[in-house]
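Example record

One chain of 70 residues, shown exactly as stored in the release files.
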Amino acid sequence: MKRIPYLILLLMFLTSCGHSQTSTLHDKLTGNLKSDLKLLLPNGTIEVDIMDGVRQDPRQLELSKNFNLP
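Predicted structure tokens for this chain:
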């Protein structure tokens, strides 16, 4: 009688592990940036910020020079 709850728990655990959380509805990624972005991004207008560089203040530049000694 004491084994029944353990068997039920084991059965629930084994059945829950069989479900995949990934969606296979989309096509495979090709490596082509233009076609892959169409697959990954949702339809509509998307506003993004692009970081084209990092600005450092003079103190940070001086500290980084000290770490890059040969």
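Notes: The chain has a mean pLDDT of 79.
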